[in-house]
Amino acid sequence: PVALVVGMAEALKLAVDEMEHSAEHCGTLRDRLENELRARHPELVIQGKVHDRLPGTSSISFLKTDRQSMLMALDMAGIACSSGSACSSGSSPPSHVLMAMNRPGNEIESTLRFGVSKFSTIEEIDSAIDAISNAYNKLRSKTCVDN
């Protein structure tokens, strides 16, 4: 249908026009998330921090925690994240990317992936930082799950 093709063309034009601004916005929010979490918890490992990477994605190793426990705690706190790549959503194997990078096992087993978008706000990031920090404080070094 012509109307759908015209609509798609306009949507693509808008996306391209906004791409640079969106990437800058996402990178700023991602860096805020990572920097504030590292300021509160210097032992955290930001995967790929010194390399070029997607501006809207952050991979953080919460050492001395189990990624599944962190994932559940953050889900209960209303924070959306994943324990693997987007293509493994619905399952929970450790990140094949981190394994291919030969990261240490304790990093792989404690890593969560977070995403931000052009629609994310500073207030949402700040709220997420508090929720993530609280969950990490509660879960690190626990050897069992409380019922």
Q: Secondary-structure map with pairings?
A:
Elements: H1 2-40, E1 45-46, E2 57-61, H2 67-76, H3 96-100, H4 105-108, E3 111-115, H5 122-139
Antiparallel strand pairs: 1-2, 2-3
Helix pairs in contact: 1-5, 2-5
What does it look like?
With 147 residues, the chain is mainly α. The chain is 52% helix and 8% strand. The protein has five helices and three strands, in the order H-E-E-H-H-H-E-H. The chain has a three-stranded antiparallel β-sheet. Helix 1 packs across helix 5 and helix 2 (67-76) crosses helix 5. The longest helix has 39 residues, at 2-40. It is elongated, with a radius of gyration of 17 Å. The chain starts with a helix and ends in an 8-residue tail after the last helix.
Question: What labels would you give this structure?
Answer:
single chain, 147 residues, mainly alpha, 3 strands, elongated
Q: What is the strand arrangement across the widest sheet?
A: 1-2-3
Helix content: 40-55%
Compute the CA-based radius of gyration. Answer: 17 Å
Sheet having the most strands: 3 strands, antiparallel
Structural class: mainly alpha
Give a summary of the structure in a few sentences:
This protein is mainly alpha-helical and 147 residues long.
